[in-house]
Amino acid sequence: MRLVSYAAKDGSPHLGALTQHGVVDLYAAARVLGVAREVFASMSSWLEACEPRLVDTDKLPANAAANVLPLSSVRLLPPVPRPGKIVAIGLNYKDLSIESGASALPKSPIIFAKFPTSIVGFEDAIVIPVGNPNVDYEAELAVVIGRRGKAIPAARAFDYVAGYMPLNDVSARVWQFGDKQWVRGKSCDTFCPIGPHLTTRDEIPDPHTLTIRARVNGVTLQDSNTSKMIFHVPELIEFISASITLEPGDIIATGTPEGVGAFRKPAVFLKPGDMVEVEIERLGVLRNPVVAGS
Questions:
Q1: Are 105 and 132 within 8 A, CB to CB?
Q2: Mean pLDDT over residues 60-88, rounded?
Q3: To bridge 139 with a disulfide, which of 5, 58, 85, 278 should be the other Cys (CB 3.0-4.6 Å)?
Q4: 112 and 88 in contact (C-beta within 8 Å)?
């Protein structure tokens, strides 16, 4: 399934599934299909069910068409509106490590945090902070956790994955490099766009075979493949959960490939009026405009 969090006319958030006909309200669909409705009340309740459940929307009877909303009639929200934590991985692509001037490839994953208040969704604006601290784009594969776990072995790691989605690890390079640590420069408000939807794990047998790209104003600046990760998803889950409990709704941002703006010659930083797109094969296109802060 391709799951969305969306707001309809009533303004309240709902959980839906994207289909060729539009957005299916899963809470309403569950009632029609005789499935436990409370699981589908929101993305949070679906994730907290521990064993994420799927609904076969193709089995909806014709008279359930009222539960399908045209995509144009809803506003897409961040698929996971308020993750407990965002664990991000630095320098997880060989070519980026080389591009950044690192003396050697990481021997273990480099982790840092992005604050949950940085989350925004599809077509929400990326806001450049006052002072314009060289704001950069980073296309990344996001892994969404679906079960609580600690000390998870790599061999069982996929059992804890609910699904995947595009993520833009927006970064204020002046603060990131000037602070000698990454949290402030990575956690500004609006600096973690995600979406447009969460694709459930059953749709993606191997997340390490996906083309990943970033475009600014239609120009492709990153063009790589998730096969080029240094540490793959099971290794990351094992490493993180050795010391940090992972919970439903947590997001792991798995790192970005080469082509970020800071290391281009000349450098390319985001400016008001830009449109940034992160596209991952089979996971959709995340699109966000850039505006100036006030």
A1: no
A2: 84
A3: 278
A4: yes
Q: How far is it, in rounded angstroms, from Cα 126 to Cα 141?
A: 18
Contact of 179 with 105, CB cutoff 8 Å:
no
Helix then strand then coil, % of the chain, to nearest 5: 25, 35, 40
Q: What angle do CA 48, 231, 53 make, to 5 degrees?
A: 20
Spatial CA neighbour of 4 closest among 28, 29, 31, 22: 22
pLDDT digit string, tens, across residues 192-241: 999 999 999 999 999 999 999 999 999 999 999 999 999 999 999 999 99
Output phi, psi for 24, to 5 deg.
Answer: -90, 125
Read off the tokens for 229: 């990760």
Let me know: does 166 contact 285? Beta carbons within 8 Å. yes
Parallel/antiparallel/unpaired status of strands 192-193 and 119-120: parallel
- Does the pTM surpass 0.90? The reply is yes
Q: Where would I find the H helices in the chain?
A: 26-33, 43-48, 94-99, 173-179, 183-186, 233-241
The β-bridge relationship of strands 75-77 and 198-200 is unpaired
pLDDT of residue 98: 80
Per-position DSSP letters for 147-183, written without gaps between them: S-BSS--GGGGGGGEEEEEEEE--EEHHHHHHHTSSH
Please name which of 277, 248, 207, 280 lies closest in space to residue 80, comparing C-alpha atoms: 248
Residue matched to tokens 């008279």: 63
* pLDDT value of position 158: 97
196's tokens: 């447009």
Which two structure tokens, joined as six digits, stand for 68? 């399908």
pLDDT digits (tens, 9 = 90+) for 237-268: 999 999 999 999 999 999 999 999 999 999 99
